[in-house]
Design brief:
This protein is mostly beta strands. 7% of the residues lie in helices and 33% in strands. The chain contains two helices and 20 strands. The strands form six sheets. A five-stranded mixed beta sheet has the order 14-20-15-17-16, with no helix packed on it. Strand 16 and strand 17 form a beta hairpin. The radius of gyration is 28 Å and the shape is elongated.
């Protein structure tokens, strides 16, 4: 009886309070909205063809979440509409956490699903996300220094609101770069304007080269430590098909394949998060999921390992030989890289000027 009495009193109190709100016209509580809320990033410069999230670009100034964000009035600087930014395409969205411990491609793909989304959209926290489906066939990137002309630049507004108020943030700039489907340590041999081979100076004839890192490798001719620039040890990345694989090969100074088995200290099951490894005297190949890395999460396959940033994949190939003094020498060639576009890709390490020494002293 006592419990029933307390429950009745509580219900009566709630009804009475609700009645008082109506009698005295007390307004419902509202969220706080600051008119100083704004984007700290005013110009967004994504590289097309890769999923990019501009994290923490919105400053809420203590406004109450949840808030609603709407991308409004995409336009060029001369007022022409730029609604291609709102084009919808199928994109892969993670539905479960990627860990780097997945044991098959099927296990990876089970954690992603296809959704039809605008190629440029706003997250619930205000972050701008540009999906990898935003490519130059949808959104025209800057093509030269002349892209600085305002009539070629894109702008948009954002309406942000909650129950406490709203605001339209105007004239945010969207200034995309052409696709660069791969990179090594923030270096690319792709011209960011034309998509052709990049040169060290505009219109120059000297090409940008990508170099791996070397350790403990000596030249076959004189046993001097091998240097990437002097000895022209280069990295080349190329798409050779439309499947979903990654191949590694090594070439000597005459362009002949070096058998991957010569890198006898390599942990082949830890080179890349790939499966169904195939090794031949000319290459080693893995079935993989793209992009590489799959997510910006540190794993044993990324630069710095589980304590790194997860920005780049990391590969290394090692071999041992006996040096002078009967000392075991470990030679290693390594590279940090990203590949953003699905396909059959091949990474070639080429010893262009002189061969590495694999044999014992």
């Amino acid at each position: 009886m006592q419990l029933k009495h307390k429950a009745a009193v509580l219900m009566l109190s709630v009804v009475a309070f609700s009645g008082c709100r109506k009698i005295f016209d007390i307004p419902d509580e509202k969220d706080y909205f600051s008119q100083n809320a704004d984007y700290t990033t005013r110009t967004f410069e994504p590289i097309l063809g890769r999923t990019t999230v501009f994290n923490r670009s919105f400053e809420e100034d203590n406004s109450t979440f949840p808030m609603k964000f709407e991308l409004l009035n995409p336009r060029f600087g001369d007022g022409r509409p730029a609604e291609d930014m709102l084009t919808k395409r199928d994109v892969l969205v993670w539905t479960q956490e990627y860990t780097g411990q997945e044991k098959s491609l099927a296990e990876i793909e089970a954690k992603r699903k296809i959704e039809n989304r605008p190629v440029v959209e706003l997250r619930t926290n205000g972050d701008l996300i540009v999906w990898n489906a935003a490519t130059r066939d949808i959104i025209t990137p800057r093509d030269s220094a002349q892209y600085d002309f305002i009539q070629k630049q894109r702008f948009f507004d954002v309406r942000v609101s909650n129950s406490g108020g709203s605001k339209v943030i105007r004239d945010l700039k969207f200034w995309p770069w052409r696709e660069r489907p791969y990179e090594t340590d923030d270096v690319s041999d792709i011209n960011p304007y034309t998509g052709g081979r990049n040169t060290t100076t505009p219109g120059g004839s000297t090409y940008v080269l990508m170099y791996p890192s070397l350790s403990g490798i000596v030249r076959e001719t004189d046993r001097a430590n091998m240097e990437t620039v002097r000895d022209r040890v280069t990295t080349r990345i190329e798409k050779i098909g439309d499947g979903s694989s990654l191949t590694f090969r090594f070439l000597d100074k005459d362009g002949n394949p070096i058998n991957p088995a010569r890198f006898n200290m390599t942990k082949w099951d830890q080179v890349v998060h790939g499966f169904n490894m195939q090794m031949t005297p000319e290459y080693v190949k893995y079935d993989v999921a793209y992009p590489i890395p799959l997510a910006r999460i540190p794993t044993r396959f990324t630069q710095g390992g589980v304590n790194g940033s997860g920005d780049r994949a990391h590969v290394e190939f090692s071999f041992s030989r006996i040096g002078f003094g009967n000392v075991v020498v470990i030679g290693t060639i390594a590279e940090n890289f990203s590949i953003y576009e699905k396909g059959d890709w091949r990474i070639t390490f080429e010893f262009e000027n002189v061969n590495p020494k694999f044999t014992n002293d």
